[in-house]
Amino acid sequence: MKKVISVVGARPNFMKVAPIYHSSKDAKFEHKIVHTGQHYDYNLSDSFFIDLELPKPDYFLGVGSGSHSVQTAKIMMEFEKVLEIEKPDLVIVVGDVNSTIACGLVAVKMGIKLAHIEAGLRSGDRAMPEEINRIATDSISDYYFITEQSAQDHLIFSGISEEKIFFVGNTMIDSLVKGLEKAELSSVLENYQLTPGEYILATLHRPSNVDNKQSLEDFYEVFQSISKNIKSKNIKIVFPIHPRTTSKLAEFGLLEKFKSLENLVMIPPSPYIDFLKLMKYSKLVMTDSGGIQEETTYLDVPCLTLRTTTERPITIEIGSNLLIQPEKNKIIDALDNSLKNPKKRIKVPLLWDGQAASRIVKIIENKILQFTS
Length: 373
Ligand code: UD1
What we know:
The protein is an alpha/beta fold. It has 17 helices and 13 strands. The relative contact order is 0.13. The site of uridine-diphosphate-N-acetylglucosamine has 19 residues, from helix 1, helix 5 and helix 11.
């Protein structure tokens, strides 16, 4: 029987691979999951396996944190051992994290075919580690599964032939569609005493936003201004904090200052199902994440993306997302405008219908494995 290995490493990978796992249960190939251990905290990893009904991974490489080079190198060394044992016919990598490029490189160097899910996205900002990971992974992949038209344009422009590109939709939205029913049962709103439509959900973890003190102080002032302006309306700000952000706040001596803000509810990184509920019922989302731009677009929740670029332009063109330069006054103005006049999406992006993974599995069976020796 032919064998496929999917790689997960960091939080945004789990919801993209889970639907492939579920859709491939009756497939004509064997499917194994390798977790590199790039993310290892319960809140960033294990809780996602539970919420997404994923089994324990077949291999856990336990590489942990480190500089980009150390992390990437460790993943490569460990993944090579797995491929030597398993000898799969195809390796699947998703998204743009260090685990994506590290495992992709190992696979192609060993002559194993490589498929990239969420291929072709480009922010145009090479200062983002994810952009380098995207460009590098796409330059070595054999098959490209894409979520929006801009990805096709970028891949064709870089010389990839059209028959290797498959516009299948978005597996992250598959997980969202499946998770919504469960999300209704989550008690996260009660747990934090939140009322639907009466809170803003904020997430921040990009190095460009959280790795320097000035930028964090600016965000403090943004939160403070929201706190002041909306106090009378009793609107809260819910802020699930990524470990990188927590450690930076502590390093710069800002943790207590943030904690002292009235109306700011600081919570640990949220499990997947709870986070879906938090997004769905929020008045507005403020984020620097990639995936949240897509999830809020599907849910039609106004989203302010605090970055200068996005690799997901469809969320701006037809979605409920707005790109806001992460500068104090610009964010405060944008918040004010959005609360008064929230942006609604025009329509759900093409093929974001909960069926992307089953399309991918069919393509793997009928088109890819058939041609792979
Ligand atoms: C990684 C991805 C980013 C993704 C994000 C989602 C890359 C280059 N970046 O960024 O694209 O949006 O995941 O979370 O792959 N840490 C913990 N516990 C963990 C994992 C990390 O405490 O389980 C801390 C460590 O101090 C670590 C820091 O967070 O140094 C950053 O982790 P890392 O995996 O290097 O990158 P992220 O910022 O999480």
